[in-house]
Amino acid sequence: MSEAELKALLLDGLRKIAPEADPAMLRGDQNIRETLDIDSFDFLSFLIALHDKLGVEIPEADYGKLNTLDAMLRYLVPKV
Amino acid sequence: MADFVMPSLGADMESATLVKWHVKPGDAVKRGDIIAEVDTDKGIIDVECFQSGIIEKLVIEPGAKIPVGALLAVIQGGEAPVAAATPVPAPVAVTEVPHIHVSPLAKKIAAELGVDLNKLVGHGTGPGGLIDREDVEQAAKPVSAPQTRVRVSPLARRRAEELHVDVTHIQGSGPDGAIEAADIERAAAPHKPSDAMRRAIAAAMAKSKREIPHYYLQTRIDMSALLSWLQAENQKRSIKDRLLPVVPLLKALAKALRDVPQLNGFWIDGQHRVSEAIHLGFAISMKGGGLVAPAIHDVDKKSCDELMTDLRDLIPRARSGRLRSSEMTDATITITSLGDLGVETVFGVIYPPQVAIVGLGKIMEQPWAKDGMLGVHPVMTASLAADHRATDGHLGAQFLEALNRHLQTPDQP
Fold first, then answer.
1. What is the value of ipTM here, to two decimals?
2. What pTM was estimated for this model as a whole?
């Protein structure tokens, strides 16, 4: 999967949990949860959806590496 | 026979619109079955039945706006409700009628349809006031929403057709309630549930601050033990089964309420009523603003996995406006957690007629002195706002201390 495809998939997942925000306007270095007002429940739902699509098991200890779109891509690209 | 009335789905609710029946006359229902959907300020609510029996008659048709306590349906047989959420109107005394002037066919049909012939006395349309077949069948039909002649201006009628608006459900603002074009435009405008919800919250919170003398306590709790336990638990689990920190927190809250039950209950008619069951109202913020606090039932009896499953079910339903009536009415205390936003302390406003609300802040790394040593620990501030008519600060302090104690031993059942 290319980085562009992965980014599209991430934005699609974010749109599902934050439909009233516009994830497409999210800058790569912005904190996703703060910018889109995503609580821990929604964030977990997002990660579960990601796991279903990509088969990537993200340990809880790595949640901190997924704060921005850029960080997510850095973390996920080598795994998919 | 029992009356099924529009339940009060919150301290702030006065009426609701019946959207749909899920049952028809003759259907068997049991306590807890969803029998209708109503539209309220807090979205569409699935209304559950309070008792078991057979639906005898549906009194109201979909589309009608009904006040709390009004008769919706009649349920035959089954046991009486254990505790109805709303006062049922006092039964009307039935006068003994020695002889009923009724045709044999009507009598037979009345028996089949479960129509009480006593109620038709004096309303017979047959010869000499005879109650005939038609009268009985009419009595068995659900009563329509009150139909009044609707006056609509020609321009309004044209706009209604263009905008696909049903004029029968619109309140006109013209002379004598006539519907004008502006009324149609207003009805066709996108429905903003947050406006109605805002008003409902305003009413409940104003009532709370007007009537309930709140007292406030807060305590800082070392969360090291809980987070270590949670981390070990989650390491064993696939992402789908992982627990959020709020789950063992809910569990500890339920245990603390077992120790100090006085905070779990209601203040009604000048009396403090402690609840045996522990149903935690969990405040959930809505995406477009506003909040609901549906009940998570019997938290003390559930495992962490069951509570996580409940949250997964409840949160999306709350946000899409699909809660059940019991979830709207059963909460015995409310929990508000603003920790996700980085807030350190939240002091809640009690949701009447409850007597307490617990506020949970963000778990933050903070300097923490223990055994004469200074270290960095994850710390959470828990607060309690409680009704001073029902309890005193001493008891509130015992509750927060019990919460602290249970959070230090999350592995205890």
1. 0.84
2. 0.70
